[in-house]
Design goal:
Elements (H helix, E strand, L loop, with lengths): L7 H11 L3 E5 H14 L5 E6 L6 H10 L2 E4 L2 H9 L7 E3 L6 H9 L3 E4 L2 H11 L5 E6 L21 E2 L3 H11 L3 E5 L9 H15 L7 E3 L17 H19 L4 E4 L3 H4 L3 E12 L4 E5 L8 H5 L5 E3 L7 E7 L7 E9 L6 E4 L20 E6 L2 E6 L4 H5 L7
Parallel strand pairs: 1-17, 2-3, 2-10, 3-4, 4-5, 5-6, 6-7, 6-8, 8-9, 9-10, 12-14
Antiparallel strand pairs: 1-11, 11-12, 11-16, 13-16, 14-15, 17-18
Helix pairs in contact: 2-3, 2-9, 6-7, 8-9
């Protein structure tokens, strides 16, 4: 059986072959995570749509399709990527936010599932198409959850979803335009460890289901936690599956027909598959600390600066070195601190460091800030490394610019 973690030697070999910084993804880890979900929910009719906003490289999307996953998209271009990757429209869910009706219509014309989270858009869509095309409605359950306020999406101040307190308004629009509502959706946030948060949301959804008689599924979003630090645990999806399947079985009998449960995991599937390997450019001693300055920055991995997220860092060039305390920073002309007071095996200039859990929202949120180049991406499948995105070159900085002076 292929191990689901890449070792130091493999990471070093890939860094030597493709250069640094480099994002490396391990296909078998994705497969392992997907199998956890399908196994956990095997006692009920479930579907999993990969939230590709976490990592949209087309090779990753195609690999998800090979595993049997659907695709959750938040922009029309993600929908087009999914179709190009070979997904059938029936296996794509479009869950946008704050887009205009034209983008909703564009997705409808492509034949994918639609998820509408705005009263105005729901009314406009109903006025134009009536009940000729089914839609799912995204609701805001007013539940505070998630590992950081910036990734909490179901609370009262969130821009996402239609408030559950507007259910009467929703009903009036649905009835007036005879809209075919085939699903209800909620998503409370990311990094949710407590399975009871999902069950709390499910109770809210079951109450709202009674207002609709043509539903086929309830979509509980995602937000499953993955371990970032030593001692961290991920969401107990096995326990969650048992409880959710039992609840769906009981409620479906009351509702009069079986309902499917849908999820949209992103980070859970790709976070742990990813590694960002960088090179230590300089060791800088100051009166306050010892800095390790690497050849990357928040232009490549913004999560520590944006979300105060923790990524475990390891010196893979000197694993037996004496442990010292360092502050790991980037080469951007901003305060781009990856880690304060981090214990690492002694770092020497030229050593390779790896950031773990770099698969989700790593390369995906990268930029060319400071006119720095984006790194290469490599996918390891059954032990073989494949380049899936070339490293930027200088000409990429000018692509799209129009020189008029």
């Amino acid at each position: 059986m292929t191990p689901s973690r890449l070792d130091r030697e493999q990471l070093i070999d890939i860094a030597r072959e493709f250069g640094t910084p480099v994002y490396i993804y391990h296909a078998e880890k994705i497969k392992e995570q997907y199998a956890k979900l399908t196994s956990a929910f095997s006692n009920c009719t479930s579907r999993f749509f990969y939230a590709c906003k976490a990592l949209t490289n087309i090779n990753i999307i195609r690999y998800m399709r090979s595993l049997g996953a659907g695709l959750d998209c938040v922009s029309i271009n993600e929908v087009k990527l999914g179709l190009k990757a070979g997904f059938e429209p029936s296996n794509i869910l479009f869950t946008p936010n704050c887009v205009d009706l034209a983008e909703i219509i564009a997705a409808k014309e492509l034949g994918v599932h639609l998820n509408i989270d705005n009263i105005s858009i729901l009314e406009q869509f109903g006025n134009k198409f009536g009940g000729s095309y089914p839609v799912c409605i995204r609701l805001n359950p007013h539940i505070m959850a998630g590992g950081n306020y910036k990734i909490s999406t179901g609370h009262v101040d969130s821009k996402f979803g239609i408030s559950i307190h507007q259910i009467r308004h929703i009903e009036r629009i649905v009835k007036t335009f005879k809209i075919h509502v085939n699903g209800l959706h909620m998503h409370t946030g990311s990094e949710i460890k407590d399975v009871n948060v999902f069950l709390q949301g499910l109770e809210v959804m079951f109450e709202l289901v009674r207002h609709f008689d043509r539903l086929e599924f309830i979509d509980l979003g995602s937000g499953f936690k993955v371990p970032y630090q030593e001692g961290d645990t991920e969401t107990d999806v096995e326990a969650l599956g048992q409880k959710v399947c039992a609840a769906f079985s009981a409620f479906s009998k009351e509702y009069g027909k079986p309902l499917e449960v849908w999820f949209e995991p992103g980070k859970f599937l790709v976070s742990e598959c990813g590694y960002l390997v960088v090179k230590a450019n300089v060791i800088k001693q100051t009166t306050a600390t010892v800095f390790v300055g690497v050849n990357s920055g928040f232009n490549h991995l913004i999560r520590p600066m944006f979300y105060d997220s923790f990524h475990r860092i390891e010196n893979i060039s000197n694993p037996g070195g004496a442990e010292r305390i360092y502050t790991v920073v980037g080469n951007i002309c901003e305060t781009d601190t990856f880690a304060w007071d981090r214990k690492l095996n002694e770092v020497r200039e030229g050593d390779l460091l790896v950031f773990y859990n770099a698969g989700a929202y790593g390369f995906e949120m990268s930029s060319n800030f400071n006119s720095r180049l984006k790194p290469a991406e490599v996918l390891v499948v059954e032990g073989e490394a494949h380049l899936i995105r070339k490293r930027d070159v200088f000409e990429d900085l000018l692509r799209g610019q129009v020189e008029v002076l």
